[in-house]
From TrEMBL:
<comment type="similarity">
    <text>Belongs to the protein kinase superfamily. CMGC Ser/Thr protein kinase family. MNB/DYRK subfamily.</text>
</comment>
<keyword id="KW-0067">ATP-binding</keyword>
<dbReference type="Pfam" id="PF00069">
    <property type="entry name" value="Pkinase"/>
</dbReference>
<keyword id="KW-0808">Transferase</keyword>
<feature type="compositionally biased region" description="Polar residues">
    <location>
        <begin position="196"/>
        <end position="212"/>
    </location>
</feature>
<protein>
    <recommendedName>
        <fullName>Protein kinase domain-containing protein</fullName>
    </recommendedName>
</protein>
<keyword id="KW-0418">Kinase</keyword>
<keyword id="KW-0547">Nucleotide-binding</keyword>
<dbReference type="InterPro" id="IPR050494">
    <property type="entry name" value="Ser_Thr_dual-spec_kinase"/>
</dbReference>
<dbReference type="GO" id="GO:0005737">
    <property type="term" value="C:cytoplasm"/>
</dbReference>
<feature type="domain" description="Protein kinase">
    <location>
        <begin position="1"/>
        <end position="118"/>
    </location>
</feature>
<keyword id="KW-0723">Serine/threonine-protein kinase</keyword>
<feature type="compositionally biased region" description="Low complexity">
    <location>
        <begin position="173"/>
        <end position="195"/>
    </location>
</feature>
<dbReference type="InterPro" id="IPR000719">
    <property type="entry name" value="Prot_kinase_dom"/>
</dbReference>
<dbReference type="GO" id="GO:0004674">
    <property type="term" value="F:protein serine/threonine kinase activity"/>
</dbReference>
<feature type="compositionally biased region" description="Low complexity">
    <location>
        <begin position="129"/>
        <end position="142"/>
    </location>
</feature>
<dbReference type="GO" id="GO:0005524">
    <property type="term" value="F:ATP binding"/>
</dbReference>
Length: 220
């Protein structure tokens, strides 16, 4: 339908610019936006409208509309190229054939498919595909490089735990001994010392007894 081709032209223009091509605050201003680009429609179309008095005066001239920002739009003061800010001739021609006042002269769907804007781009990849592929390859190579460099960092040995250091042997009197052998040596030395003191005490005691006995015999 002709109204669908009009909608297609408006949608493509908004997709390109990011803004509605005819940004009216109400019906009156929206028609002013359309006439600002396409000019005033022919009188035969105006006369066929059941609401023409709302938008046009008795002579068929557009009624003055001022928006909330105090702006008044004048018919035919902007071109489609100025509104879209585009220099692509195929795109501008396609949009201009969609946005025609007369529904009978508006481009038909079959003709739209044969238009250079559609037919010349049907089998072409978008321009950003190559850049996206290149960035993806660069990202993959950087990740692979990081993965390959990761094992090298693990070659640095970790510090020895405190428990491992405490279990090492110590050097006593020029030779390595373990804590158990050290305790055994201390126990042996203590036992020998006690035996030596006991034998000395026992000998002294026996000697004292004999000496005392000798004194006692002499006295008698």
């Amino acid at each position: 339908m002709a109204i669908d081709m009009w909608s297609l032209g408006c949608i493509l223009a908004e997709l390109y610019t990011g803004f509605p091509i005819f940004p009216g605050e109400n019906e009156q201003e929206q028609l002013s936006c359309i006439m600002e680009v396409l000019g005033v429609p022919e009188k035969e179309y105006i006369n066929r409208s059941s609401r023409k008095k709302l938008f046009f005066d008795m002579n068929g001239a557009p009624r003055a509309v001022v928006n909330s920002k105090g702006r008044r739009r004048k018919p035919g003061t902007k071109s489609l190229q100025q509104v879209l800010r585009c220099t692509d001739e195929d795109f501008l021609d396609f949009i201009s054939k969609c946005l025609v006042w007369d529904p009978e002269r508006r481009i038909k769907p079959q003709a739209a498919l044969r238009h250079p804007f559609v037919s010349s781009r049907r089998h072409k990849p978008p321009p950003s595909t190559t850049k996206a592929t290149a960035s993806s390859s660069s990202l993959s190579s950087s990740r692979t490089k990081q993965l390959n460099e990761t094992p090298k960092k693990s070659l640095i040995s970790a510090p020895t735990p405190l428990t491992a250091r405490s279990a090492r042997t110590t050097v006593i009197a020029g030779g390595p001994t373990t804590p158990s052998s050290s305790s055994h040596a201390s126990a042996t030395l203590g036992s020998s010392s006690r035996s030596y003191r006991a034998s000395q005490t026992q000998g002294l005691s026996s000697y004292s007894s004999r000496t005392l006995s000798g004194f006692a015999v002499r006295d008698v």
